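quick one before i forget lol
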Amino acid sequence: CVTGDWEVGGKVVIAATGFSQRENEEREIAAIDDTGTVITLTEPLEYEHISVQQMIAGRFVDMSAEVGYLTRNVVVRGNLNEEWVEEVPACPEEFRTGQFELQTCFQGRFGAETVNDQFGSQIMIHAAKQDEGLVTGRIEYIEVTHAGQ
């Protein structure tokens, strides 16, 4: 069941269930049924994402793709200076890392990657009086972009 903050127009990610992370997919929600258990997407999925239940050692185990809600109502966006942006191409499917290999492509995610050593953002929380421990910051469910790692 989707929680109350999932809305039509929100973005979701559907995790790959095959052998390639390239099969992770992002889509937009077109509709949510009244029970909150079925979402309709604005466009079909490109890959098959399985959902099966198997008996393993006498227990039923659900094996399904994870679905995550990406849309957030608070976005913290760092500076992006186009002069410093470089595109690193995705590694070909057959690329294998080795101890003495020269890596000239990006591996470990979904494809090509934008790299930049100038990304950055700050979130500061200040108390009215210094050194009195009068402030507590709790940050949940936000989207942070152009902020490095």
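fyi The mean pLDDT is 80.
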